[in-house]
Write a structure and sequence with these properties.
This protein has 12 helices and 10 strands. By secondary structure, it is of the alpha/beta class. β9 (about 215-220) and β10 form a beta hairpin.
């Protein structure tokens, strides 16, 4: 059974009003436990609307979304349980920090679950450790005294403290300096492997998508345009460019070399793959 299923999902904002906007139309897909999925699409393609259906912040205008077999629009559905299962990290999550200390901010969710203070402390320590924050050093500091990357990691820790099965992130590296970006993306990769989390990542970076994810879902104008492995999707470069997207820089390089007559593989995704295919092509020549 799929962990998350969308069946003919459509969503219309302000339906029936002069401001009616169709955000999603007929989206059908499923995500299994343990996957690392990237979601791509131009601005306004419906990416953020889609992921908000995964933890029932939004419910379908038509169609069905199921989380662990439970339809989110079922009146009997336990929405709090769904939201504990699927943790959603919005873009610029540090804007959601509000407590006086790092510890109290991360502890907010576990306390709302009714855990005793020992249980809360264990959740906080584990979550901070998972994002590379030393609780003994930073726990009593104001979250607003931290760097941008540290604040973002604390915000992610607040979601992890709820022990979700799925972590959904909307552009988690947006606005960070290069070092902060590398740190946050490495932490997300580590969370997928060490905590066996299902990870769903919205990104505008084709390079990040190639390096981190294993499967890509592409939206365009509210519809599902592509769904396949990273290599399969980036092999459709011209279609992606037609949507205003692109391919990883490495893939762009080998495709340009191929157009100039060098017999390299057009679907190289990593630096190692590019080096190998270029060396082979040059040796052959």
């Amino acid at each position: 059974m799929a962990l998350i299923e969308c069946e003919n999902l459509s969503h219309v904002y302000l339906k029936g009003s002069p401001m009616e906007t169709v955000a999603l139309t007929g989206v059908t897909l499923s995500i299994d436990t343990g996957e690392f999925v990237g979601i791509l699409g131009p601005t306004g393609s419906g990416k953020s609307t889609l992921i908000q259906h995964f933890n029932a912040l939004l419910r379908p205008t038509s169609g069905v979304v199921r989380v662990a077999g439970v339809a989110t629009n079922d009146p009997k559905a336990d929405l709090r349980a769904i939201r504990r299962r699927v943790g959603l990290v919005f873009q610029y999550p540090e804007h959601q920090l509000f407590e006086e200390t790092v510890y109290e901010d991360v502890a907010f969710g576990p306390r709302n679950l009714g855990l005793d203070e020992e249980g809360v402390r264990e959740r906080v320590d584990d979550a901070l450790r998972s994002v590379g924050i030393d609780g003994s050093k930073f726990g009593q500091r104001s979250p607003f005294s931290l760097s941008g990357g540290e604040m973002r990691r604390v915000a992610i820790a607040g979601v992890l403290a709820m022990s979700p099965q799925v972590l959904v992130l909307d552009e988690p590296a947006a606005g960070l300096d290069p070092q902060g970006k590398v740190e946050i993306l490495n932490r997300i990769r580590d969370l997928h492997t060490s905590r066996h989390l299902t990870v769903i990542l919205i990104t505008h970076s084709m390079d990040d998508a190639a390096q981190l994810t294993r499967r890509l879902i592409v939206l365009n104008k509210g519809r599902l345009a592509m769904d396949g492995s990273v290599r399969e999707v980036f092999a459709r470069a011209e279609e992606l460019r037609g949507m205003g997207l692109g391919v990883p820089a490495i893939t762009e390089l080998v495709q340009r070399l191929r157009r100039r007559g060098l017999s390299v593989r057009a679907d190289a995704l990593t630096q190692d793959e590019a080096q190998r295919t270029i060396k082979e092509a040059l040796a052959w020549n």
